[in-house]
Amino acid sequence: MNARTLGEDLRAAARRTPERDAVVCRDRTLSYGELDRLADGFAAGLGELGVGRGDRVAIVLPNGVETAIAIYGALRAGAAFSPLNATVKPEKLAHVLADSGAAAVVCDATRSDVVRSAVSMVGDVSVITDVSQAIREPGRTVAPVSVDLASVIYTSGSTGEPKGVTLTHANMTFAADSIIEYLGMQESDTILCALPLSFDYGLYQLLMSMRVGATLVLETGFAFPGRIVQLLESRQVTGFPAVPTLFQVLLGLRGLADRQFPTLRFLTNTAAVLPAPTIEAIRKTFPNARLFSMYGLTECKRATYLPPEQLDVRPTSVGVPIPGTEAWIEDEEQNVLGPGEVGELMIRGAHVMQGYWNDPALTAQRLRPGRWAWERVLATGDLFRADEEGYLYFVGRRDDLIKSGGEKVVPREIEDVLHAAPGVREAAVVGAVDGLLGQAVHAHVALEPDAEVDEAALRIYCGQRLEDFKVPRRVFVHDELPRTNNGKIDKKLLAGFDPRVEVVGTD
Amino acid sequence: MSEGNGVRIDMRDYIEENFLYLYPGIALKDEDDFLTLGIVDSLGFVELVGEVQSRYGIPVEDIEITEENFGSIAAIERYVERKRTAA
Q1: ipTM > 0.85?
Q2: What is the CB neighbour count within 10 angstroms for residue A389?
């Protein structure tokens, strides 16, 4: 019997294998028994602050064992958690705290200034700056049921303001079980996760590992790929989730091709399709590992996966709906389209979110009436086509969203920041093709007549207001931004802008 | 040894020019950890390792890209010295 809530699965694993390593990060290891007790202890600590069933708890932490304690502690307290990027800036965090009505925010000493500054803008939010100091003697908590809210995950909306994707325990356990099924994840697995737990792809590595009783090895990002290679070998890792950028960084390393990774049995990729040469290099380097190409969005966690044996047949496909779900392609009049026709991908299943927190208008745009009176299906906002056998292919976004290094970036959010910068008259942010990132965030600006800002100053300005991955890698200053015939800024032209060829904004 | 100081100065210049200018508030010391301070991100390290390879002609092996070798200005200096001695 699969556990119905995210706290129960950890409890069950702790009963089965209390001594097995649950979460490992650097020199810290928590067994299932320890994590189970610490989660109860943290739930008690939250309870002491008045946090209980139905409350929201924001978590601003880099990958670490404390993050796991905070997440499961919040769930054990009956609360829902909101995982946030560890480089979040005060204004953004304040927005999330106010929007979610968070009762508490959990961080560490490094982030306490940012968090306190955000809390000062919002008011009544308890702050925990050290997870280990907030552990109390476990008391009685009221366990949530499967229809209770488990998480509000903030993701960039098309307007740039982050939107809270609301997910129940039932949504998340369903998605986790479906993915566990097609990956064939099991208790004996050891998963290495270098993706941030604030990113749902990273978060689910934790949730799925705890569900099957596997060991999760956490690394804080992939700045030091040497660490990742060492961990793959020394921890005898069996599963490794990545994004194209991470694969590219690894495959570019000298000496990697000569290594053997006999235990590694599956690799997963999402965020963007892997180029054919990269697929080939991955297979040569990790010959024992099955490679899964996948596609998803926070609103339903994961939508599709390509069975590895199909990778040679259709390398650019992201596959079929995940087990237990349906997907189809529609035109703008809700007609279901046939093979080869391009339309919006629609998703149906128990993984589909409940809506955006506090935003019924946006929810109505994305959740549409379904087969039954009570049902709503998810409009992904992404354009797809299917082949004759029904395998799905990502065609493009309906909006101008940028995918950079696996992270979603909404141009509007960065443009808003740049427009507020002194001296900037106009700004346009585009995704420029980048070998490593897939797309790199580039900003193009036109300045006020006597403005005294340059690329460095504008990057600093953005760096003080945006998460690191949103800060433009380049800022190009033009006399005028190019326009299309109907007067809009020509983003297509800017996306292909090559600074070595002066064709834009000169006369 | 003058060579050692050279690495330290080279690397400080490189880090200041390419990364540090974005963080006007930070006074970087040679032992300060780039990642903890948040001045170099994942892709920044790719560039940094490339710079060390090309500037000093050192073929950097995969498992050498760790904080022990690339985490700070002093770490890079020790790494470069060690590789030069070994070569």
Answers
A1: no
A2: 11
Q: Is A338 helix (H, G, I), strand (E, B) or coil?
A: coil
Backbone angles phi, psi at A302, to 5 degrees: -135, 140
A109–chain B Cβ distance below 8 A for any pair: no
Run of H or E residues at A127: strand A126-128
Judging contacts by C-beta atoms under 8 Å, the chain B residues touching residue A87 are 38
- Token reading at A282: 């991955």
Give every residue of chain B whose pLDDT is below 70, as ranges: 1-4
A460 → closest Cβ in B24, B62, B71? B24
B37 touches chain A (CB under 8 A): no
In this prediction, residue A501 carries a pLDDT of 53
8 Å CB contact of A436 and B36: no
| CA atoms lying within 13 Å on the CB side of residue A75 | 30
Mean pLDDT, chain A, integer: 92
Higher pLDDT, A156 or A66: A66
The pTM of this model reads 0.88
Q: What local confidence, expressed as pLDDT, does residue A397 receive?
A: 77
What local confidence, expressed as pLDDT, does residue A500 receive? Answer: 60
Place of tokens 């540090």: B20
| Assigned token pair, A13 | 């694993």
Topology (CATH level 3) of domain A402-495:
GMP Synthetase; Chain A, domain 3 (3.30.300)
Parallel/antiparallel/unpaired status of strands A320-321 and A304-306: antiparallel
Strand order in the sheet with A215-218: A28-31, A21-25, A215-218, A190-193, A239-242, A266-269, A290-295, A304-306, A320-321
With CA atoms as reference, the chain B residue closest to A87 would be B38
* Residue A180 Cα, gap to closest chain B Cα (Å): 29
Interface of A with B in 255-294 (CB under 8 A): 255-256, 259
CA distance A1 to A275: 40
Q: Quick one: closest CA in B to A221, which residue?
A: B42
Q: How many CA atoms lie within 13 A of A27 on its CB side?
A: 0
Closest-CA residue of chain A to B44 = A223
Report the residue from B22, B38, B66 with minimal CB separation from A224: B66
DSSP A273: P
Q: What is the DSSP letter of A240?
A: E
A13, A181, A196 from A21: Cα distances, Å: 11, 22, 20
Q: SS3 helix, strand, coil % of chain B, rounded to 5?
A: 70, 0, 30
Percent of chain A whose pLDDT exceeds 70: 97
> What tens digit of pLDDT does each residue of A200-227 get?
999 999 999 999 999 999 998 888 999 9
Q: What is the pLDDT of residues A252-308, one digit of tens each?
A: 898 998 898 999 999 999 988 888 889 999 999 999 999 999 999 999 999 999 999
User: What's the helix, strand, coil split of chain A in %, to 5?
Assistant: 35, 25, 40
Class level of CATH domain B2-86? mainly alpha
Whole-angstrom distance, CA of residue A242 vs CA of residue A474: 25
Query: What is the reported pLDDT for A435?
Result: 78
Domain range list for chain A? 402-495
Rounded Cα gap, residues A449 and A417, in angstroms: 20
- To probe the interface with B, which of A254, A454, A465 has the most B CB atoms within 10 Å? A254
